[in-house]
Amino acid sequence: MISTVVWGDGSIARDAIRAVDAHPALTLTAVVATDADRAGRDAGDLAGLGRPLGVLATGDAAAVLEARPDAVVYAGSGRVRPVDVRADIVAALRAGAVVLTPPIHPIYDHRGSEHGVREEILTSIRDGGGRLHVGDVDVDWADHVLPLALRSIGDRATSVRVTETVDYSTHDLPGSVRYLMGMGEPLSFLPPMLAPRMPTTVWGDRVRQLARVLRVELDEIREVVERVELEVTVETATMGKFEAGGMGAVRFEVQGWASGAPAVVVEHVGRIDAEVAPEWPHPPAGGAGHTVLVDGDPRIAVIVEPGPRSGGETAVDRLVARIDALVGREPGVYDDVDLLRP
Description:
6-stranded mixed β-sheet, 2 domains
């Protein structure tokens, strides 16, 4: 059995505990609590399993790593504590563990990334012999299905577009929806996620990674952002009113250009009301969805509709399932494309 630690106690960690418990090759040996109030609670209680697992959450991460676990699923709130996250992940890699984590956007495509954290990660792997895989729990199936589809059609693919469509009115995250994305705010307000270069910071490595699968050498990455005002005030059940005149919809693309044309495009379309910008893509089945279009011979379109489980939950399942494949690999950093190879 592969001894596995879940590091964190939020929603991603809860999904990870359930996934580790359900996996026949893994055994949960520790949970590291990032919230002191949750230390001492049974992992089964934290995950909402309705039964104890006999593993109590602890705040002593150093002691957990001293036991040399085989794998660590890191879910320690990377967006709000990035410095601590890097230190935690480096410590786990120095302990020789397989580390799987969603928070480190800049090294999704570790070959192309020039982000400063890359060298720190590689040094810790050289010193400790760990293996790192950075996954993504914010997207649904699209980014995972896509490399397999491209691999099956080989050199005949010429371009690819991945489109995520989101109905923000179903969310209960006012800080993210109103402030980070700018929904309901005047168009004079520039939300952090739409600031110049920010879409590329978050999604640029994904574009480069897909270009690698497509076997295309990118010349540059461009951003296109469009925003549309609400014509009428709308009210959501979870986040209250969004006044007319505020931003009602946003559409942006991160485009990888090659030979004078966009070869890889990652597109996001978000609305606070379904009636805004009707000409833009809509979710295939309400709430959220993804469409993947691979142009070439043949031309392939994949539509991903949301199911009863959240996209985050199924993405965490896939992240945990990769532990098995990584345990036997040489020390290093592995992305989605690397894991297509035996």
